[in-house]
Design a protein that fits this description.
The protein is mainly alpha-helical. It is built from 19 helices and no strands.
């Protein structure tokens, strides 16, 4: 019933959140037994149901309020113990990531340190399971607050045995290093990391959309390095390999940036081609309204705006 009522309720307004009232009313309506109503097991199950629904609906502000309130209640009532330690670490991870999504980056980092402390509890019972989530929290927050610090963390991670033994972790490290160096205009360093990405195990079998975006990132990087012959060759290969994907409406941004890049190859300066400049301005405006979220690897809009200037 909690799940059903959440799903059939309109989006929760960020300033006035009736979520806790809804949960209380639901449990009051259907559970008459006081002991059951206060049962830790039931309350943990309600937490899981609520957090999953809000995550699916991308309602991060109500989720933030709910998680912070609920975690503090659980702590105050001493509900956490060894047997449900996984739930505690999961809640802390959700809090960290939700605060990042609501642009409370410094708070997110503070909660990341609480996660780190909790990971050491019970003789580091679940340390390995949450090791990556902790470092992911540091990287995503410092990528915004202090990119050089994020790079330092990733360089340290790169040499750790836990990272080397896991293909997904290696993807995370090299992709973020490539993007961060690209954003910092360290193009010679960035291209090395783009190259390492394409050589990692599983690259060819990875999601085609992800491979397309990574390859476009490499192409933009090669443009900055003036490697026009390599760029033209790789663009031709990309257009053949990803032809169907590029023409899919979900990849409008990729199609546009490739067309812009192709035309930029044929002009000495953008200002010399008014039609190209108009196209770039239109794409820049489109990205401001439509291009954001977890699927973004390289911010094409920022790159285009830099070249318009």
């Amino acid at each position: 019933m909690v799940t059903y009522r959440l799903k059939t309720t309109q989006n929760f307004a960020p300033d006035r959140n009736p979520l806790l009232d809804l949960l209380k009313k639901t449990t009051d309506d259907f559970i008459k037994d006081r002991d059951l109503k206060n049962s830790p097991q039931l309350r943990f199950r309600i937490y899981r149901a609520v957090s999953q629904v809000l995550l699916q609906r991308h309602e991060y502000k109500p989720l933030e309020q709910y998680l912070l309130t609920t975690f503090k209640e659980f702590e105050k009532e001493n509900l956490f113990n060894r047997s449900n330690h996984d739930t505690k670490l999961q809640m802390l991870t959700y809090i960290v990531n939700t605060l990042f999504k609501t642009d409370k980056l410094k708070q997110s980092l503070l909660w990341a340190e609480k996660l780190k402390v909790a990971m050491d509890e019970f003789n580091q019972l679940l340390f390995d399971k949450y090791f990556f989530f902790y470092y992911n929290a540091l990287v995503i927050n410092y990528s915004v607050l202090d990119p050089n610090q994020a790079i330092t963390i990733l360089e340290d991670l790169k040499d750790q045995s836990r990272i080397k033994s896991n293909a997904y972790y290696l993807w995370f490290v090299y992709l973020n290093l490539a993007v961060l160096h690209f954003d910092q205009t360290n193009y010679k360093v960035a291209i090395k990391h783009f190259g390492k990405l394409s050589l990692l195990d599983g690259f060819k079998s990875a999601d085609a959309s992800l491979r397309l975006k990574i390859t476009i990132g490499e192409l933009l990087n090669r443009y900055e390095l003036g490697q026009m012959d390599v760029l033209e060759y790789k663009m031709n290969r990309l257009n053949k390999e990803y032809k169907l994907l590029i023409n899919d409406e979900d990849h409008y941004a990729e199609k546009e940036i490739l067309e812009i890049l192709k035309r930029m190859l044929n002009v000495a300066e953008v200002k010399n081609d008014p039609k190209l400049r108009d196209k770039m301005n239109a794409f820049s405006d489109w990205t401001r309204k439509n291009y954001e979220g977890d699927g973004v690897i390289i911010d094409y809009g920022n790159w285009v705006r830099m070249h318009i200037k």
